[in-house]
Design brief:
Elements (H helix, E strand, L loop, with lengths): L3 E4 L3 E4 L15 E4 L1 H11 L4 E4 L1 E3 L2 H12 L8 E3 L6 E8 L2 E7 L15 H6 L2 E5 L2 H4 L1 H17 L2 E5 L9 H14 L2 E2 L3 H8 L4 H9 L5 E5 L4 E5 L4 E5 L12 H15 L3 H16 L11 H8 L8
Parallel strand pairs: 1-4, 1-9, 2-7, 5-6, 9-10, 10-11, 11-12
Antiparallel strand pairs: 2-3, 7-8, 12-13, 13-14
The structure holds adenosine-5'-triphosphate.
Amino acid sequence: KSEVFTFGETMVLFQPEQMLPLEYIHQFPKKIGGAESNVAIGLTRLGHSVTWFSKLGNDPFGRFVLKSIRGEGVDVSSCLLTDEAPTGLLFKEQLSPEDMNVYYYRKGSAASLMQPVELDAGAIAAARILHISGITPALSDSALATVMEAIEIAKRNGTMIVFDPNLRLKLWSAEQAKKTFNEIAANADVILPGLDEGQLMTGETDVEAVAKALAGDSDKIIVIKLGDKGAYLYSNNLKVYVEGFSVDRIVDPVGAGDGFAAGVISGLLSEEPMEQTVRRANAIGAMVVGVSGDIEGLPTFEAVERFMKPAGANRD
Ligand code: ATP
């Protein structure tokens, strides 16, 4: 059984190599795109065992997604292929290094048909951490029910719940997202929002006030992502800004949050001090934005350790 269980939708991602409006793009390298599988792959690179669950179309794209994720060493054995609906697709459009648009072709996709009974309850019970992303509950009512069922199973079995809100306003309204995020957050042990997501969830503005409101009276750990500034860690015994790493050139800003989540989950599994965990998560986020694609820049444990050393520290 795997240390971590995660689930969600992974689409075929068509990511042009040129910075042009999509109308003028004629060739599309075919990749995969999905926040939860990014986290799963990030974790396998760091040396952990992960199960990823989804429902895919029984079509060439579904098989491509499954093979790609399996090829990264993630356990996909409980995934389902269905004839009922196709695999979702996603096109990226990059107009400048920091201006990226996405176009979804995922409504009614196979993943949106996932049902609570399709979850591998035994795998969630056996895992140490359940990773929940706020994208999955936005896919459909049955996907929302599947998220709530996964949380129930984790609660019953003492599996720690890590929640990354991953707000996607193309999928639902801010009001709907806020309500569901807060329901999930109430059950989570660790919450990893961006500042905008934390502000939406709490109605607070300041980083520290957002974290305090999210934690309430509980002993939840809150880590607020702050882009190039790093992150703010709020726990019972430690409230501290953890500085980010500088990036020479931002190539692709998407996927940093997923790499960050993989870093936090890895540190939780290793039971290392939280500040060190967030530092490594910052390093992974910084490494990801320097590489095109969501998974290409996800480092191995050794690579992130090297990256975190001050310049020159490797030389004899
Ligand atoms: P995503 O775009 O993947 O949804 P996000 O909005 O969830 O990301 P960000 O705050 O953009 O989260 O990035 C996550 C983490 O990655 C940050 O907390 C930081 O540690 C690192 N990071 C992101 N951008 C940069 C950057 N430009 N320079 C250095 N580190 C960065």
